[in-house]
Amino acid sequence: MEGSEGSTGGAQDGRRNQKLRTRRALVDAAAELLREGRTVTIAEVAEAARVSTATAYRYFSSPQELLRETHTLLRSPDVTANLPADPAERVDAVISRVADMQLTNEPAWRAMLGASLERYFEQNDGREAGQGAGQGAGQGAGQEEGFPVRNRTRLDLSRTALDPLAATLPPAALRRLTMALTLVYGVEALVSTRDVCDLEPAEAKEVMRWAAQALLDTALREAAG
Predict the structure, then answer these.
(1) Which CATH superfamily includes the segment(s) 2-73?
(2) What is the pTM (predicted TM-score) of this model?
(3) Which pLDDT tens digit goes with each residue over 152-183?
(4) Contacts of 115 (CB under 8 A, 6+ apart)
């Protein structure tokens, strides 16, 4: 009996490990498609990972679900590690690290931005369809829970960068600075500097850094005044 139980446990471990390998293969394939600037679909990811589309759908029900896991894989080590204490240096470090991370892997970040926008329209269309059908307020509230379509990682990074100013700036001023800082870096700022302003990566990064310091200087002058 003990031998039989051991054999069953070994088989279960084998199946579990195989599932983990398949899942990782799908995520790796999606990451490679993103790096190439290609649109991520379940079918293309399955083909790249050499599994059937049906198998891929058992792990991820939609490209958006797959992209959320791929996003974690593409991220660099913690950009808030070993931040300096000085607020200006601290803000500059966060902006610079995020810019380096995204500008060196631009197609992938653009693809993830596109996927998040598609998700917004899918959710918004579903909500409007529900309202048009005369669904109750309870269901509308449930659909609202699907928002936002973007995570708040960048907002958290801005808050971390500005932590030392909590004792210097009034709460309202600190909040406004945090929101303003979040506008001048990240993938949307990448698109603005690269496409609208037609800047090369190095200059795009410098513009983001300058804008962040300009916001910080303005907030500190207003508080002092």
Answers:
(1) Tetracycline Repressor, domain 2 (1.10.357.10)
(2) 0.66
(3) 788 889 999 999 999 999 999 999 999 999 99
(4) 40, 63, 64, 67
